[in-house]
Amino acid sequence: MKVFVAGATGVLGQPTVKALVEAGHEVKGLARGPEKAELLRSLGAEPVTVDFFDPPAITSAVADSEAVFHMATKIPSLMGMRSRGAWRENDRLRTEGSRILVDAALAAGAQVYLQESITFLYGDTGDEWITEDSPISLGWVALDSMMEGERETQRFSQGGGRGIALRYGAFYAPYAASTLDSIRLARRRLLPVPGDGANYFSSIHVDDAASAAVAALDSPAGVYNVADDEPLPMRDYARALTDAFGLKPPRRVPKWLFRLLAGGPAEYILSSQRVSNRRFKEVAGWAPKYPSVREGYAAIASQIGSNAA
């Protein structure tokens, strides 16, 4: 299948391009500049160097594609997430970028449009499992743009294609800046557990997120949760990281202090989200290589060294 990937050089884009190529697909990826273009060539993909927000250029680039992936994001650093202004470019990618890409995919007659989404869209459900039918909660304004991206995915389905939104758990990987930042903070015991840490936190290793995107090519239109098999309470999640790297256990801080330090994203980190991946596993025949962060962080420590980061 001919696949066009926007965000092809990002944290999720790179392993997805690699997985698509290994599966025998013909891949074109959006690249900013010669260095990113060369990166895509090294992965076996054809680079396309056009402005994402130039509709005619994108329509031309997507023209012969059978599937279109929207994985372009601009997520702020851990330290920058509390600033609303830091999310502006990411919001534009999810709103205007999604409209442009869906228009191009429809014009190309593509069969599949895949949108990267997030499980933070759900509310706090305590110990209950979250399915794709669980209520949405948009208390944090930065999530509004993600819902706009999902609506554009539905528009693609209404146009006759298969629009698929993959709601991913929190990403982690040895090549993800947020993971390396978390390890550095944990070394200094500056990655705290808010309150008693009993709230569930759902995550997904980026390699598993990429394999899910490839598996979704043959899936029916719809929304699917993509998380690992065993979401952990936050205290166990943090302990999985520190244990993997032989660090002291994380400190605990009052929830009010965590809210003060983290800003807007705090409520979603404090929410209890025990996300089920059952529907996608059944539909796509997919399973994560790393069932939980216990296995995932142990693998990362082995890959980069327990003293790295």
SS elements, strand count:
15
- What proportion of the residues form beta strands (DSSP E)? 15-25%
Distance between the termini: 38 Å
Helix content: 40-55%
| Main sheet: strand order | 3-2-1-4-5-7-12
Q: If helices are DSSP runs of H or I spanning 4 or more residues, what is the number of helices? A: 13
CATH class: Alpha Beta
The CATH architecture classification is: 3-Layer(aba) Sandwich
- Secondary-structure content class: alpha/beta
Give the tally of structural domains. 1
Let me know the CATH homologous superfamily. Answer: NAD(P)-binding Rossmann-like Domain
| Low-confidence runs | none
SSE diagram, text form:
Elements: E1 2-6, H1 13-22, E2 26-30, H2 33-42, E3 46-48, H3 55-62, E4 67-70, H4 88-94, H5 96-108, E5 112-118, E6 129-130, H6 144-158, E7 162-168, E8 170-172, H7 177-187, E9 193-194, E10 200-201, E11 203-205, H8 206-215, E12 222-226, E13 232-233, H9 234-244, E14 252-253, H10 255-262, H11 266-270, E15 274-275, H12 278-284, H13 293-304
Parallel strand pairs: 1-2, 1-4, 2-3, 4-5, 5-7, 6-15, 7-12, 8-11, 9-14
Antiparallel strand pairs: 10-13
Provide a concise account of the structure shown.
41% of the residues lie in helices and 17% in strands. With 309 residues, it is α/β, with parallel strands linked by helices. The protein has a single domain, classed as NAD(P)-binding Rossmann-like Domain (Rossmann fold, 3-Layer(aba) Sandwich).
Describe the structure.
With 309 residues, the chain is of the alpha/beta class. It has one domain: NAD(P)-binding Rossmann-like Domain (Rossmann fold), CATH 3.40.50. It is 41% helix and 17% strand. It contains 13 helices and 15 strands. A seven-stranded parallel beta sheet has the order 3-2-1-4-5-7-12, sandwiched between helices. The longest helix is centred in the middle third of the chain and has 15 residues. The radius of gyration is 19 Å and the shape is globular. The N and C termini lie far apart (38 Å).
